[in-house]
Every structure is written in C-alpha cells, then in structure tokens.
Amino acid sequence: MRYVTLPGTDLEVSVVGFGAWAVGGKWWGDDVRDEDSIAAVRRARELGVTLFDTAPLYGHGHADEVLKQALGDAMGEVTVATKVGVRWDGSGEHAESDLCAAYVREDCEASLRRLGVETLDLLQVHWPCEHDTPLEETLEALRALKREGKIRHFGLCNYAAPELEQALAGGDLGVFQTPYSMIRREFEDELSQVVKPDAKAEARVGVFAYETLARGLLSGKFRTLPRFPQSDLRARDPRYWGTRFFRLARWVDLLRQAAERVDEPTAALAAGWALSRPEVSTVLIGAKRPAQVEQNVRASDVAARPEVVHLLDRIAGAYRG
Asked: If both were cysteines, with which of 72, 83, 103, 256 could 126 make a disulfide (CB 3.0 to 4.6 Å apart)?
C-alpha cells in the first residue's frame, strides 16, 4: 500500500480507501451481513488501508456502528471521513441535503456519538444544499466546528466547478470527493482544471474518487445480465439494463483480458486507472467481504506500473458509452 498527504493538511491516507456504503446494510441487497462487513473492514486494515469513508446516509448511520466495532482501539490509528447534511423524510427512505448552520452542527454531533470519538478527522458535505442555504454559510459552520476541535478538516462532495472554486478561495478546504471511473469521466472537464490548473503545479486540494468500479460493473464478475433484488439500488441503475449492459459487458471483456495478461484482478485495473490520474489522491472502493478487499487494494500497485496504465489508457479510450 502507498500513502499520500492531502495538500494543505496533515492527513496522510492510503491511496486506496474503504468505502462504507455497502456495509451500512441498506440499498446493496439482501446479502449484507455485519459479520462479513466487520471482517472486510479488518482485512482492509491488515492490508494497509488507513482511510475509511462513511456517512449518515449509509444504513441510517449503521455503517458508523460497523466501523466502530470493526476498528475498535485502532480507530485512532486511521482516518475516518464522514459526511454531513442528510435530512430524512418521515418514511426514512428519501433524503435531502440540509446545510444550514444548525443542522450541520446537529449532524456532526450525531456522527461523533455513533463513532464514539471526540473529534472527526474529516467532515465532508455530502451533496449541495436543497434548502437554499448559501455555500458560505455552510463553510462558516464547518470552520466553527474546526475551531471548537470537533473536526480536524472539512471537504465537499459532488459539487460543480464554480462552487469548488468558491470553497477553495477560503484556503482551508481539505478534500474534494467526486465520482470518477473509466466510464464516468465528467471530472476531467472543468473540475480537474479547478483542482490542478497547471499540469506542472501541485494540486490545490486532495481528491477522493468514488464509484471507480461503477457499482461493480468494472469488477469483471458480471458476464451475464444480473438480477438484483429490489433491496439493491443496482436494480434501478440503467447501466444494468438490457442492451446497455451488454454493450458495457463487451467493453469490460477488454478489461478482463488485460487483467489476465498482467496478472491482476479486473477490479484493481479499473480502480488503478483512476488512481493513476495526477489529480486523484485516493480511490474509495466499497466491499462487502474480505475477498473483495484483497482485490481492491491491488489498485495501489496497478497505478504504479506505467506499462499497465498505458494499456488501460488505450482500453479507456475504446469506451463509447
């Protein structure tokens, strides 16, 4: 495992992070079991993963409880990144982003209680506010929490380039989290230019890339059209439907063949390609079981092999959506 210090912070994290959405036990099928999740988290730790990314959304906070149980006393030896702003409706099925100062504080304190810590390493805004709170009000609320010692650093997730530029102007943004994969490359447009305006300069902020496996599509395990239960969000993902899936599957065959050629897991190739991008600090990859973790962490080695990255560039260029 390799490690990186996020620009402008004292946070040194593994270049492969553990995404905890699936271990929350909601929206990822009927096969999520806490005993498997705990084993996966512990295996990640054994393999050098020091970044664990969670959120109140993930199983209504259950992912936090899983991390707390799995990491135990090692919680203080790793970086736990969580998020803020999720407000549920009465059904508990639908969430909106509420980023007023009062709710940012309330959500932060709830995370502190669930994780059983006095200070959060990294608190990120999960997605832009849907209640018209100005971004600067939210940032000031985060700065207040930092001054009080409740968080060490803060960041944004899922924002567009103008808002990211606004946040960076304050000089204290710790990280930016965004979707990025071989088949989802919007980050390469305006956002990457905000992060790293000059190819020869250092990045202005650390970037966590998530969905690097496109919800499992790039793992290489789906050779035929899968059938997911309604409890799995992928049952409603158009990429897993009919013609589109089969078109993607033909392209994934190229990735699978490359994996056999270089003797690495297909998932590691997909995530390793994203990690090899100069603007990306860390790739966040979810896992339900230890065996998945063992494949995912190989992305660190893949990204450090220029000849493999060159091959993956050619495969990524062959993708036509």
From this structure: 83
